[in-house]
Amino acid sequence: MSLNDPNLTDLAAAVVTGGSSGLGEAFIRLLRTLGTAVPVCNLSRRPCAEKTGANFKPPPHHVPCDLADPAALARAAGAVTGWLETVPAGPVLLVNNAGLGAFGRFPGDDPARQLAIIDVNVRAVVDLTGRLLPVLRARGGGILNVASVVAYQPTPYAATYGASKAFLLSWSLALREELRGSGLRVTACCPGTTATGFFDAAGLDRLPGAAMGAEEVARFALRAWARDRPHAVPGLPNRVLTWAGSCLPRTAAARVAGLVLRRRAGPALP
Ligand SMILES: NC(=O)c1ccc[n+]([C@@H]2O[C@H](COP(=O)([O-])OP(=O)(O)OC[C@H]3O[C@@H](n4cnc5c(N)ncnc54)[C@H](OP(=O)(O)O)[C@@H]3O)[C@@H](O)[C@H]2O)c1
Questions:
Q1: In Å, what is the CA distance from 104 to each residue of 48, 177, 211, 256, 270?
Q2: Catalytic one among 27, 157, 161, 171?
């Protein structure tokens, strides 16, 4: 899937959250291969993985930030705005990618993680986007929000995570309408199972279903944004699943989603 789209190759800069691993790292790798290598600023607690930094000179700019901490986020947004002043004029892409999940019956043995999901997956996205929106309006470009297939129906055994992504999808579509005519593109990408450290971090020692590769998903997401898609689901099986989830009555969709996750995760589900 080619990324040779002027909406991507003409980017002057990109800001990616959660670029230290998984999908975020793949976004950065791809953005750095575009045109003259798009300068990228990464917001995460850890820096980008070594290979991303080593492969590209200069390495992505890193603003260390715990996105769950509102004061740290405010400082980081200031640092990002300052960094954007140092890169050439032109469109900027904000990729709201950082996120975490938790699997099992609510609240599980780590209730604080349930709140961290809301802080990072919801609060930080709204806060950071609001702070960077004036720059985006002035420079052009847009926003790519990384939601999930779980956004399309309630998701038992990942209740908080599913609801956080449902928020993100709904918010993204609404923001897109508000920004109609501004020249800014807003897309929600909704991946299914992707081979990253996400499930491990969420306490699930087995992937729930066949996984797509991180680079394949990131490539799909960038293309969807470049083509101004409101929301996009990578992979045909995932598209069938989300379509079915959207068609069923919500209570039935919740039941089916719970059964599917239980079956796919098996004994790995706490
Ligand atoms: N993998 C999947 O199957 C899948 C499917 C659908 C959607 N997604 C979504 O894709 C996005 C990326 O996840 P991934 O699969 O790439 O997982 P991942 O490898 O675990 O990466 C998560 C990223 O989020 C960052 N992050 C988490 N908490 C943070 C915090 N408090 N402050 C700053 N950064 C934080 C991490 O950076 P630090 O730890 O360095 O801070 C890391 O770079 C998430 O939004 C996830 O919900 C994933």
A1: 30, 35, 20, 16, 5
A2: 161
